[in-house]
Design a protein that fits this description.
With 100 residues, the protein is mostly helical. The protein has five helices and no strands. α2 packs across α3.
Amino acid sequence: MSSFGKEYNKGSQMLYRWRLHRNLTQRNVAELLDVDVAQISKLENGHRKPGRTFAVKMEQVSRGAITCGMWDDDPLPQHVVDPAMNPDFQLFRDGHGNRG
């Protein structure tokens, strides 16, 4: 999920982040929610929004990390580092950050 287009929503982003933060595979999440792996993939990629029942179950399983309303919210903004604000970032990104 490297680039977020119009299809993405906050729910898809948070599902992806929640899953990675917990070191879970899509298969693990599918088993937790008793759904097919393809459904988790479509949700994460923004190709599908969950129904109300599934959204409630996802909120319960994630203990509130992914709320029902997130599926209708706009995606979170991508964070961009401004080199003017942090010139050392450019050195780090270019592989010259070791000032040993």
